[in-house]
Amino acid sequence: MLHHHYNHHQLQRPRRRCEGTAMGAIVLDLRPGNGIGPFSLGMPICEAFAQIEQQPSIYDVVHVKFFDEEPLKLDIVISFPDHGFHLRFDPWSQRLRLIEIFDVKRLQMRYATSLIGGPSNLATFVAVYDLFGPTFPGIYDKDRGLYTLFYPGLSFAFPIPSQYTDCCHDREAELPLEFPDGTTPVTCRVSIYDGSADKKVGVGSLMHKASVPPLLPGNLYMEEVHVKLGEELYFSVGGQHILFGASPQDVWTELGRPCGIHQKQVDQMVIHSASDPRPRTTICGDYFYNYFTRGLDILFDGQTHRIKKFVLHTNYPGHADFNSYIKCNFVIQGSDLDNSKQSITPSTKWDQVKEILGDCGRAAIQTQGSTSNPFGSTFVYGYQNIAFEVMKNGYIATVTLFQS
Fold first, then answer.
1. What does the pLDDT read at residue 199?
2. 328 neighbors 225 (Cβ within 8 angstroms)
3. How far is Cα 368 from Cα 100, in angstroms, rounded to an integer?
4. How many CB atoms lie within 10 A of CB 173?
5. What residues make up the domain containing 263?
6. Of 369, 221, 246, nearest to 298 (Cα)?
7. Is residue 216 part of a domain?
8. Tens of pLDDT, residues 205-241
9. Are 234 and 348 within one domain?
10. Most buried residue, 45, 79, 132, 333, by CB count within 10 Å?
11. For the chain, how big is the Rg over CA atoms in Å?
């Protein structure tokens, strides 16, 4: 893993830890192939953050890591250093694919009625074997000096001291594993992953074999939203068509109740002078319907009460709005709809957009990085019927659709 490439954000809250509670003394239910505590494999990253926010006294130190330059290359990781485990989210779907407990002394796990891990219940080979039952012989990785034991949706890696490597000849070992001096190894990493594909997931290259569980048919999470420029949005799973000029009642009927409604503010920030950088905002009559769970805002004209804009969000880490919206999985055909085989999606970089739509000149607006947005500025580029807000790494943050 290219850890030195990761951007590292710490969500630090005031310490609420009571005196006398031991570090990492929380107990989480271990669900092989399914999850741990409140975190379930396949959950969207926003749901994980919601769980964290519900229990601030437990999850009071949280690190979020992502690869800023190429956000789709490496997992988005939420790490709990006090509790010795982290959550790995697939960077494209932003769903939880792998849970790794990297410091088993810090995290106590409950399985059935037994406890394992934590400062008092060492997760030894013999203890694991007794608790989870017999399994096939595992895999011995000579280069790492690790022996990995596999159960459905669950694996345990054990370091093997160099003097005992011959206990693990031919990559397999006798079970349960005890060394000649009577000791037994203690697990250094526990992996929890979707076991339905019958893959062996563990440390190193085996880590990449963990894939997110499939969504159930009809699930609306990140459904494809097809954009017909200047005309409409089409939702591929639900089958709804939302046209420019539609009324709030139309939208309510098709998409259900909005998650939020707010008045649009006219932001004079974009034309402020360097000598007076205070943002000034005034309310205009227009108003938004926010559909956070669809990654979408709809702007209505305050006079006519008709749709005049759609805003689609990609939810990349490193943008000021990260974790406010679920990612919108949009598909935009090129301007020459019939001939263009290329489409623009949340994974398309700005250079590719220019190849598809042509160059539109310099950025119309540059939003400033400020104290409220530590992530730096973004650039907005406009075309007929569409504008792109582009992050410094060249990825699209938002798409705004309108009728020219």
1. 80
2. yes
3. 37
4. 20
5. 224-402
6. 246
7. no
8. 777 888 898 888 888 898 999 999 889 999 998 899 9
9. yes
10. 45
11. 25
Domain presence at residue 122 = yes
pTM score, whole prediction: 0.85
- Count of structural domains, the chain: 2
Q: What per-residue confidence (pLDDT) applies to 19?
A: 38
Domain check: are 198 and 263 in the same one? no
Alpha helix stretches (DSSP H) within 82-229: 125-132
- As beta bridge partners, residue 380 has 365, 389
**Between these two residues, 29 and 197, which has the higher pLDDT value?**
29
Of 130, 108, 118, 46, nearest in space to 327 by CA: 46
263-302 confidence digits (pLDDT tens): 877 654 444 444 455 555 566 788 999 999 999 999 999 8
SS3 content of the chain, % helix, strand, coil (to 5): 15, 35, 50
Contact 296, 310 (CB under 8 A): yes
Which residue is associated with the tokens 């440390």? Answer: 203
Pair 185, 232 in one domain: no
Instruction: Give the C-alpha distances (Å, rounded to integers) separating 276 from 265, 268, 354.
Output: 19, 11, 34
192 plus 330 within the same structural domain: no
Co-location of 233 and 193 in the same domain: no
Residue 361 DSSP SS3: coil
The arithmetic mean of pLDDT across residues 373-386, rounded, is: 80
Q: What strand order describes the sheet that includes 139-141? A: 6-12, 61-67, 76-80, 85-89, 96-101, 189-193, 154-159, 146-151, 139-141
In-domain check, residue 215: no
Residue among 363, 362, 347, 329 nearest 396 (CA): 347
| Residue 135 located in a structural domain | yes
